[in-house]
Amino acid sequence: MPTRIFLNLIGGRWVASRTGKTLRNINPARKDDVVGEFQASSPEDVDAAVNAAAEAWKTWRLTPAPQRAQILYRAGQNLVERKEQYAQEMTREMGKVLAETRGDVQEAIDTAFYMAGEGRRLFGVTTPSELRNKFAMSVRMPVGVCGMIAPWNFPMAIPSWKLLPALVCGNTCVIKPATDTPLSTINLVQALVDAGLPPGVVNVVTGSGSQVGMRLVEHPRVQAISFTGSSEVGRVVGQTAAGLFKPCSLEMGGKNAMIVLDDANLDLALDGALWGAFGTTGQRCTATSRIIVHRDIAKEFIREFVDRAEDLKVGDGLDESVQVGPQINRQQIETSIRYCEIARKEGAKLMTGGKPLTKGAYANGYFFAPTVFAKVKPGMRIAQEEVFGPVVSILECSSFDEAIAISNGIQYGLSTSLYTRDVNRAFRAMRDLEAGITYINAPTIGAEVHLPFGGVKQTGNGHREGGIGAIDFYTTWKSVYVDYSDKLQRAQIDTGE
User: Fold this and answer.
1) With pLDDT > 70 as the criterion, what percentage of the chain qualifies?
2) Is 397 one of the annotated active-site residues of the chain?
3) DSSP strand pairing (145-149 vs 172-176)
4) What DSSP assignment string belongs to 33-65?
5) 215, 344: one domain
6) Marked catalytic residue, from 173, 285, 340, 397
7) Predicted pLDDT of residue 428
8) pLDDT tens profile 295-340
9) Which domain holds residue 359?
């Protein structure tokens, strides 16, 4: 069967890159399975896409928001109809199990329907004027052309977080999918095109970060940037955008902690820890990579947790019985190996896993055993740095206050969770944990689309995706004054006193 060739979408047409080169998209569970070949694009391709978006913005911004929303709603319906197909294709290109890729598509569906509702709720503010016969209000305005750089771990959900709110607000977009997972973004955009999205409103350019991503950030006609990825790359993106005075939303790394106190429902905490640590093979920015357990229950918790981790079935995500899929590529496997070696040298105790799976059914994929380290100290690198794999550290604490201090003692601040039956400590944790997201009696993963998503400290730069946070980023405020007095009135001066 011939390999499928996928093209860029520029100005409403599917076109090849000017480079004439392509990149292969490989199934990480079966390296001999080529999902497709995608364009290895150049800065010139980005220029063409941005120019198309700028031209389309002239009419798209004038399309009434409820009409823009109708297209999003129809796109959501398309995704509902294609959910299984898109989930199967996502598992092939990204690796995570079918239950999770179905959830990834569902998140895009939820975002489409939610943002369609915002087409009649892009509320501004009216306020009394200080002068007679004068009306004062503020309204939301679209930003313009938005450049978007998406990650590989949620290859449809996260692009939907970026594209759909931007579109309903009246912006046009150029999106660069991750090089490992471009098909799912193309599938999302195809659902929009089939829903009646006008040419040029969304443009897709595949390729590398150096050739495509940075040109998007630097392009003078791109008015705003949305980036999800590593803190290292995000720092460069943010600094470049700041030098050009562009709004830039950064959603980056995490080293998320689950706190399990001595009064917790232990079975519930174990279930949550297993899902939080090994869901998506640990390849989530919100993954539970640290578990802070009260000393009084630590021995029992560790024993049960290790037993459950060893029982997890690792394999090809297309197998409905598999619970943990592959890592995305060789580089991520090497990162997991390196951090396991670092943890051992630092004195952490390996309880299970700690190595790639390479024999038998695993020989043709990028598989890593679910890994648990105990005897981890807060200052160890394994407790401070993001691994982005199925590797979890267990730390012990003697009190609630110590647990909070350990949780906060990192450079990141994305997601946190606390297991307790004490409502007073739960509310203190909600207040004191330094994170953009806090769960009570649930793991650190599981955000919903109608609430803002993002973190503090080096996780991001203050902007949010999801919910009203996304609407805030993709609009700019304009204040409007209408003076119907038929005479000159001077604010702050002619007050009638």
Assistant:
1) 100
2) no
3) parallel
4) EEEEEEE---HHHHHHHHHHHHHHHHHHTTS-H
5) no
6) 285
7) 98
8) 999 999 999 999 999 999 999 999 999 999 999 999 999 999 999 9
9) 256-440
CATH code at position 380: 3.40.309.10
Assigned domain for 488 exists: no
Q: Write the CATH number for 470.
A: 3.40.605.10
* Residues 206 and 322 occupy one common structural domain: no
Could you tell me if residue 1 is inside a domain?
no
C-beta of residue 269 within 8 angstroms of C-beta of residue 260: yes
Residues 262 and 292 sit within 8 Å (Cβ to Cβ): no
Domain tally for the chain? 2
Q: pTM for this structure?
A: 0.97
H-type alpha helices, 195-230: 214-218
What sign does the CA torsion over 90, 91, 97, 99 have? positive
In this model, does residue 392 exceed pLDDT 90?
Answer: yes
Task: Find the catalytic residue in 251, 386, 396, 465.
Answer: 251
Q: Which residues have a Cβ under 8 Å from the Cβ of 477 and sit 6 or more positions away?
A: 138, 139, 140, 141
Rounded Cα–Cα distance for residues 475 and 463 (Å): 12
In this predicted structure, the answer to whether residue 142 has a pLDDT above a threshold of 80 is yes
The pLDDT of residue 495: 79
Q: Under a CB-based contact definition with an 8 Å cutoff, are residues 291 and 394 in contact?
A: yes
Q: Assess if residue 454 is contained within a domain.
A: no
* Strand, coil or helix: 5: strand
Residue 489 lies in a domain: no
Predicted local distance difference test score (pLDDT) of residue 24: 97
Q: Quickly tell me which residue has 């990204």 as its tokens.
A: 94
- Closest-CA residue to 282 (of 387, 151, 152, 394): 387
Tokens of 16: 């090849």
The total of other beta-carbon atoms located within 10 Å of residue 395's CB is 25
Strands 125-128 and 134-142: antiparallel
Interacting residues of 319 by C-beta distance below 8 A, sequence separation 6+: none
User: Does the pLDDT value for residue 145 go beyond 90?
Assistant: yes
Confidence of residue 496 (pLDDT cuts 50, 70, 90): low
Using CA atoms, how far apart are residues 109 and 103, in angstroms rounded to an integer?
Answer: 10
| Burial class (CB within 10 angstroms; exposed 0-12, middle 13-18, buried 19+) of 52 | buried
Q: Which residues lie across from 37 on neighbouring strands?
A: 5, 24
Task: Answer yes or no: do 280 and 187 share one domain.
Answer: no
238 shares a domain with 122: yes
Q: What is the pLDDT of residues 348-383, one digit of tens each?
A: 999 999 999 999 999 999 999 999 999 999 999 999
Share of the chain above pLDDT 90, in %: 99
